[in-house]
Amino acid sequence: MYEKRLGRFRKLQVTEVKDASAASERERSRIEGERLLESVQARDLVVVLDERGKDLSSRGLADFLDRADARGQGATCFLVGGPFGHTEAVRQRADFLWRLSALTLPHELARVVLMEQLYRAECLRNHVPYHH
After folding, report:
1. CA within 13 Å, CB half, 119
2. How many CA atoms lie within 13 A of 41 on its CB side?
3. Which of 60, 81, 83, 113 could form a disulfide with 56 if both were Cys (CB 3.0 to 4.6 A apart)?
4. Domain spans, the chain
5. pLDDT, tens digit, for every residue of 1-42?
6. Using an 8 Å Cβ cutoff, are 45 and 74 in contact?
7. In sequence order, which ranges of 1-132 are alpha helices (DSSP H)?
8. How does pLDDT run across 84-131, given as a tens digit for each residue?
9. What does CATH list as the number for 2-125?
10. Distances in whole angstroms, Cα of residue 9 to Cα of each of 66, 74, 108, 125
């Protein structure tokens, strides 16, 4: 639903990488991290959702998107990790580490929260009633 609503404000492309089936958690994270990194381009602004990241309010996210759009190059990519989180290599590629919540969320739920917050930020940016 939020993906569809976001289309009103910006082009959106959701890319899912295949889960790794390796035996160890570390190996799964490594493979999934490599797949995530392969999905972004050198010019992209990469936002990694990570528990070590900075907290943003909804207004702060709207301001971040303003700055990202003003940058005028590449796409803004939000990377949501799998069940075992991100590797250090993914964190190092990040232009910004964002802590979506202090709570631990399953990656499927984190994606919904991310989409809702992006929609809320776009409503704030475009003066559309949604954020109260």
Report:
1. 16
2. 6
3. 60
4. 2-125
5. 999 999 999 999 998 888 888 778 889 999 999 999 999 999
6. yes
7. 2-6, 25-38, 58-71, 88-93, 107-125
8. 889 999 999 999 999 999 998 998 999 999 999 999 999 999 999 985
9. 3.40.1280.10
10. 13, 17, 23, 10
